[in-house]
Amino acid sequence: MTDPHEPTIRPATEEDLPAIVAMLADDPLGATRESPDDLTPYIAAFKRLADDPHQHVFVAVREGRVVGTLQLTFVPGLSRKGATRSIIEGVRVHADERGKGLGTRFIQWAIEESRREDCRLVQLTSDVTRTDAHRFYERLGFTASHVGFKLSL
Questions:
Q1: CB count in 10 Å sphere of residue 105
Q2: CA-CA distance, 59 to 71, in Å (whole number)?
Q3: Are 84 and 120 in contact (CB under 8 A)?
Q4: Among 51, 62, 88, 105, which residue has the fewest nearby CB atoms (within 10 Å)?
Q5: What is the mean pLDDT of residues 33-60?
Q6: Which residues of 75-102 are buried (b: 16+ CB within 10 A; e: fewer)?
Q7: Model confidence pLDDT, tens digit, residues 89-137
Q8: 72, 12 in Cβ contact below 8 A?
């Protein structure tokens, strides 16, 4: 029997967007680029994600409240002998839940989902300023093996 106070992980719904966007905005980087007061672009993006079978947005819910989110993308490829990889993006845990193990459980869950999808590699990026997040991912077995580049358009 599962503990009713333990968070459950499920696919996100459009109704979860206010809580998801609030978590995306609740840090120094997100505060400068997210707009929780206008959900219109997020609704459009969520619909695009929902229409793509390789894109999945999940939430962690505790006692009816969304307390975490992440996006999991499955990318088929030719490299690594035609391997599929997963990309974990947009990981956020509500401020009230940080330090309680939810982030670890959520990432481990995403890794297991990736295994179920027969992925050979799980990758993620983290802003260079998020040093606490880097230590967190390294504790979970991720290595800083590549240098990432972005170009804003």
A1: 16
A2: 9
A3: yes
A4: 51
A5: 96
A6: eeeeeeeeebbbbbeebbbbeebeeeeb
A7: 999 999 999 999 999 999 999 999 999 999 999 999 999 999 999 999 9
A8: no
Rounded-to-integer distance, Cα 50 and Cα 43, Å: 10
Contact 77, 112 (CB under 8 A): no
Measured CA to CA, the distance from residue 47 to residue 52 in angstroms comes to 9
* Three-state SS annotation for the chain: CCCCCCCEEEECCHHHHHHHHHHHHCCHHHHHHCCCCCCHHHHHHHHHHHHCCCEEEEEEEECCEEEEEEEEEEEECCHHHHCEEEEEEEEEECHHHCCCCHHHHHHHHHHHHHHHCCEEEEEECCCCCCHHHHHHHHHCCCCCCCCCCCCCC
* 25 burial type by CB count under 10 A (0-12 exposed, 13-18 middle, 19+ buried): middle
d(CA 99, CA 132): 12
Distance CA 146, CA 103 (A): 23
